Amino acid sequence: MAAFTLTNASHILRGTGLRCSTQRRTLSLWSTALLNSTQRAACPKLSENVLRRTLPTLVQSRPISTPSKILQFVKTDVWGATHRSGYGRVPPPPRRRSLFSAARDFIDSLPSGLFTWGILALNGVVLLAWAYANDLARYQRDHVWLKWMYDNFLVSMHNVKEGRIWTVLTCCFSHQEPMHFTINAFTYYFMAPVVIAIVGNASFLALYLGGGIMSSCLSLLFGQQIRHKDVPSHGASGAIYAVLSFFACVAPTAQLAIFGIVPCPAWVVVGGLFLYDGWLSIQGGSVRTDNAGHVGGMLAGVGYYVLKRMGMRL
């Protein structure tokens, strides 16, 4: 997986339909202050003498009732005096928030850095667990811990058939090689804070985890239908590709730096990766890269963007 960094993000929220609530509050306060200042400028303070001269002119004599006025009085005042209105009724009880809404609001209230660094830390812990298991197997001939890691942090058709369904998610936090972890962490570090600022903590978690699950499922499907063999897979590339493709949909002209050096528009980067990984997936995939998983992550990011544009609160 290539590493990407974000070079400019000042115009991302302009012109998009995905605006955070803090902008709306700022706009509301600004418009209220502008209205108050306009009213003060247009209505200067009146002196007491001016008020005394103008107040009598505000009292006007009651016009002579006409048939139309009488009919209006019968329809409004008499009807209101002889029939009950809604005044005094007990208002309906407020609707209870669902558990999902309460959990979402709680997650969004937490600091965003908790999720940026928390996911990185979780990936780092699993990396250390792989290193410990490999050392036990290599130097002490103890394969128990290594087998447990294979059973719980690699996604494969064998693990799924054995009932370990959770591996479609846990594999998204799993890296055996430090270089694999470093490249994924590099891209995640630059992309995650920007996407969290756009959609919030809860939506970002749904995007990351959903992208990882979609990546695992498509990897299993291609392994059975194209490769015709069960190849275990792991890594956060699919989930990170979901974040990257979602960002490219929100800000397609934003500049991304490939490996932190070569600037390129986001839509070109994601489009090129989709064609590259899609072609290799159809051809059977490379030996060390799960190209089908990359395609699944990008499709998940685009699909999540479409659902957000449709107004779904995910």
UniProtKB/TrEMBL annotation:
GO cellular component, one term: membrane
Record bears the keyword Membrane: yes
Keyword Ribosomal protein: no
A Pfam family it matches: Rhomboid
Cellular location(s): Membrane
Domain of life: Eukaryota
Name of the molecule in the record: Rhomboid-domain-containing protein
